[in-house]
Input
Amino acid sequence: VTTAVVVPAAGRGERLGAGVPKALVPVRGVPLLVHAVLGLAAAPSVASVVVAAPPDGVEPVRRALADALPDRPELVTVVAGGSTRADSVALGLAAVGPDVDVVLVHDAARAFAPPALVETVVAAVRRGAPAVVPGLPVPDTVRKVAEDGTAHETPDRASLRAVQTPQGFRRAVLDEAYARRSPSQPPTDDAALVEQLGVAVHVVAGSDEAFKVTRPVDLLLAEALLAAREAREAGGVQA
Ligand code: CTP
Ligand code: MG
Output
């Protein structure tokens, strides 16, 4: 079984508002995308990574990743992403090698997802699940709000999960989902697209550290997380 990861990284990062594409925003001096790819490279089952980069930034992204992984020049391929996340995933998927039979899709913005989470998702697909997503219990109460601002519906929190990436798929399933997608209805994520084929999506336990860097406050969390990881490594204390 060969596993590849498609990394959509072509978004503009409007909510972060850093003035550069989110994938290139540095945390402790290293771009988010480089953090993300280093995390994937540290997962033993990942044989290749295809990055969908901002279309005007393919060459600099290629160089930054080559510099970050000097010992593994074959690991990463960089292609130009598209104007929606799904377009970027489709462009990345088209560059996945023919020998690959398990494909993960992982947001560059979830740059600190632990390698153990990647392994958990891969293992679930290898055990037979066609589609696997990490999910976390939702800490807030979620209400459905009508256009007039009133809320009449409150789903039971116990049955809700906030879904993360990496999401894992049997390659044939993801290929089919993307081949059939309607460009006028962008999916919220890859698992939602696969669900439209009638395929069951299996949920595994997610990780707090796989949070998506979305708003400025998330950068503070990212800095603190990296500082804690460095301190732990320096102290030789096991996580
Ligand atoms: N993405 C992509 N191509 C796009 C849009 C998004 O590859 N055209 C990627 C982003 O780079 C990110 C992931 O999809 O890694 C999740 O998207 P999101 O967090 O929404 O990132 P942005 O679209 O960059 O942020 P915003 O919505 O705030 O502009
Ligand atoms: Mg977006």
Residues 11 surround magnesium ion (ligand 2) (CB under 6 Å). Residues 24 and 31 are 5 Å apart (CA to CA).
